[in-house]
Amino acid sequence: MSSNRNHKNVHAFQKSNADRNARRRELYKLMPPEEKKILLARRRAKRAEMRKHNLSESSMNNDLTTASSSNSTIVSVAQSSNLIMRKPMLLLSEIGSTMPSEMNYIKLKEISNCQFCKAKKFEYEPPAFCCSNGSVQLTSHEIPIELKNLYLDNTELSKHFRTYIRTYNNIFAFTSLGVTYDKELAKRNNGIYTFRVQGQMYHFINDVIPTNKKGKNLQLYFFDSQNELQNRMACSNKLNEYVVRTLMEILKINPYSMFLKSLIDVPQLSDFYIALKCDSGLDQRIYNLPTVSEVAGIWVEQDITNSTPPHIRIYTKSDKSQLVNYYYSCYDPLQYPLLFPYGQGGWHCGIKKIKCSSRTSTQIYCEQEQLPSIKNMCSIDGLLNMEAEVMLKEKHKRDTISCREYYCYKLQIRDDENIVLHARRLFQQYVVDEWIKIESQRLDFASFNQDLIRTDVLDGILDVLRKGEREVSHIGKQRILPLSFTRGPRDMRRRYMDAIALVQRFGKPDIFLTITCNPSWPEIEEKLISTDEVQNRPDLVSRVFRAKIEELKNDIMKRHIFGKVAAFMYTIEFQKRGLPHAHFLIILNENYKLLTPEAYDRFVCAEIPDENIYPYLYSLVTQHMMHGPCGKLNPTNSCMKKKGRCKSKYPKEFVEQTTKGKNSYPIYRRRNTGKSVKIRGHFLDNSWVVPYNPYLLCKFNCHINVEICSDIKVVKYIYKYICKGHDKIAFHIQTNDVNLEIDEIKEYQSARWVSPPEASWRIFAFPISEMSPSVYHLQLHLDGQQLVSFKSTDNINKIASNPMIRKTMLTEFF
Ligand SMILES: [Zn+2]
Ligand SMILES: [Zn+2]
User: Fold this and answer.
1) 607 CA distance to ligand 2 centroid (A)?
2) Where are the domains of the chain?
């Protein structure tokens, strides 16, 4: 269920399927009994064949959702799970008797590089992940050797440069940055630095001449240039004069810097029209670097005509800041001169894909993209008009590189060392900036296409109708986010409804599992170069975590470590400092339900294992699975609520035996053995152990909490976004005053927080939640909640009385 991309197709597909099934049922009724018998026998044989086929599917094909796009989804997936029934790995009763010897950390498989772009790959990444099977091709990243040394050398100066890289970049950046970031997380000496941003990021260009004596950004290249070094040094007391001098020398080759310095020789500068071009017009697929005349120009005012290339005018002294639009190619090089010292452009519309005729069209496992193909667009109106046209054309095959594809390609690890990935804190900023760019484009798209995407649940329309509203455009006073917008209120609400539908169909969940990324996984550490620190490589963190999630999915769904699974779902979340974790809900097959304390003990343990018998497991439990300390031992721990109680209720009571417990949660065995371990300065015993599964803990070597649960509330918990925050808006529309103006886009944009790992996760188009079997239509069970699309010019009576709206795939099918 990660992709909404198929939504439309699925509708069409299911409709035709429903028609066909109805016809079949009619035919079947008319058949003579012998023929019915033959037909049924043939059916059985066919099903057996399919089951065999499912069995032989390679374990690489882990994408359960692709196999389940038919109406028989639920049936076929549920049936095919009587596969490989391996013996459940480590039974808890075995602790203390024999421990399977293969209990070890299991690394991800090595995967060969992409045959097209030579990118290094991690297990489970689809072939099209890096370069869309060769159709995206961009030149590699060039930087002067002196700068490369600052990034990669081990000298004291280079180390100093890397520590203060954002400061250095800021004083050389041509544009200033407008952003709200979490200052607590960005404090030096306060834990791990994280560049976490709220709301939008803006890049501004200022006048050439500063209003006061102190210049900044592009002014430093031009104003008082004899004293450039001193002026730059005055920007911060962290700077090293030698490094500043070196960078000034390096940036002499930068075309923007050259342009600004050349202005010094222009007499009466204020008489001229000075502009930076939005796009150098260079082909980024072949190696070439922009020249001064390609990035900027100076004209006499009268010469400005329609044929003058799209540009940003800069003034000598106007007291105005110009916004650099995110869709300009110059957006990146103006803000990141230390990443793009030659002024290389970033993404812009119209970069062509490479046509490969031999390529088979592989399904890309990623989120929907709705981006148009346009060239040299310089106004937002033009861009959006084009997008609207594309949308109308429906199935438009893009032949240009989308913004997401572009940055996904650029963030790959290839042999020609990509300096951007090693730019530490500057890389954190860059990743966040580029993701916000991609999302801004999607939001702008939604904003300017309200007519086309206005989709609401039928209930909403009927409400309005009851209140006497007749014109659809009245409902449309609010700007709304489409269902297809990932993490928008409608998307989150649908995910939640799908989850509820799954539980309605398969019963309460049995196992609740939380897995948290371990930044010290060997797969991550191996890929770090000597100058890297893991927190500055959000790309690596995301990719390895995603691969682990896929592996865990296989354990649950294909290797049946908990027994046969009827259904499962998971959501991905990012902690404050950006580390991802995932919540899984697993619903077991009827015959595999965990009903007794003995059954619980088979899968869940909440005790410190014997150090001598299980040294590896012991080290993992003490590393990953000890809660807190909190409470009296540490009253300020993050789990502490206002009343001075731990929200997870640690430390727990000692008990001799696992029991069912009063609520929907069991009480696990925690014996008072007198044994304790020193954790974060305190001795903690069995009452502090977070319930775990020994096999999974050993295999994955990270915090992985496994609990038995039969509480439907956990569904709400894992979809908690729906219960708070931006989702409120979606409910407003149905219940509140119709005259209320609602701007979901603005609300979403200003409330959103973005951390570097989340930004790279989304740039890589990894799913933020999934469920299996897929629920494409179950949501329509909820009566009156069918989705309706309408244009604001439609008459509301016409919409509500249209029989097609009442007809859904589901009512057609059954
Ligand atoms: Zn590739
Ligand atoms: Zn606690």
Assistant:
1) 17
2) 1-115+479-613+691-775, 145-332, 626-638+668-688
